[in-house]
Amino acid sequence: MLIYKEIKMKKKKVDLEDLFELSEFFKFFGDSTRIRIIEFLREGEQSVLAIANYLEMGQSAISHQLRILRMANLLTFRREGKAIYYRLDDEHVEKIFQLGLEHILHKRGK
Amino acid sequence: MLIYKEIKMKKKKVDLEDLFELSEFFKFFGDSTRIRIIEFLREGEQSVLAIANYLEMGQSAISHQLRILRMANLLTFRREGKAIYYRLDDEHVEKIFQLGLEHILHKRGK
DNA sequence: TTTATATATGAGCATTTGTTCACATATTCA
DNA sequence: TGAATATGTGAACAAATGCTCATATATAAA
To answer: Residue B5's pLDDT is what?
Structure first.
């Protein structure tokens, strides 16, 4: 019976707590501003103003979103003079971004 | 110069429209009820009531969320008598769930 | 056909979320 | 030191979201 389960590759039950955390994790990707920031940072670190200009949004709005991503440990930053440069800080972030992108592009046959 | 870009594996710019759609896609995973439904359905199809009982939530709340996942083409369903059985309808859904799960488990060293 | 069971859905409501605005903090330069 | 530039953050507000309640629809059973 154990062997049967192994053969079937039965999915392991996930703790309720982990599922809550998982949905919280995906929330970071579920906002267009944040996903655009992530996309931009895939090319390398960028300052806050550079991000704001790229997205054509206010600096404050960007700072608020960067804070969210930073506190989730998805970004790191370094200061250089007056500017602060943010960069992606998690290999999973890029992988998940890429997988999601493949999904929607595949879905529409791109 | 083209070769240089290829060697660097420069990330392709993603259309703004695609980024909006991508964030919409991740929103489906960014809710604890929906992620719990997805987790439950990884084991195979389940009726609405079975899902509601498993999550210990009302049938209406589950139906509302199933509708959202269904309209996103993440689920299919079949009727059998009075019951309707839902199942995952997208290989990407499981992959993204799995990758996200690996992320949070890795992050806490499980 | 009436009753029971399973699911779907619109309206209402409370909560969450993202942006803007005003202002605070930090660094550089004159 | 004072002005300019870059970034951070709390409050307020509007929009989006998810649940509950009541009710509609569909199928099966009596």
So the answer is: 45
User: Quick one: which of B31, B96, B103 has its CA closest to A23?
Assistant: B31
List, as one string, the DSSP characters of A55-87.
HT--HHHHHHHHHHHHHTTSEEEEEETTEEEEE
Considering only CA atoms, which of A83, A78, A58, A29 is closest in space to residue B25? A29
Look at the block and give the residue holding tokens 């992050």: B107
Q: Distance between CA B42 and CA B16 in Å, rounded?
A: 32
* Nucleotides in chain D near protein beta carbons (<7 Å): 4-11, 17-23, 26-29
Separation CA B91–CA B35 (nearest Å): 15
By Cβ distance, the residue of B19, B92, B103 closest to A32 is B19
8 Å CB contact of B22 and A29: yes
pTM, to two decimals: 0.91
Q: Is A9 helix (H, G, I), strand (E, B) or coil?
A: coil
Mean pLDDT by 10 residues, chain B (110 residues): 50 93 98 98 97 98 98 97 96 94 86
The predicted structure's pLDDT at residue B74? 96
The reply to whether residue B73 touches residue A27, judged by beta carbons under 8 angstroms, is no
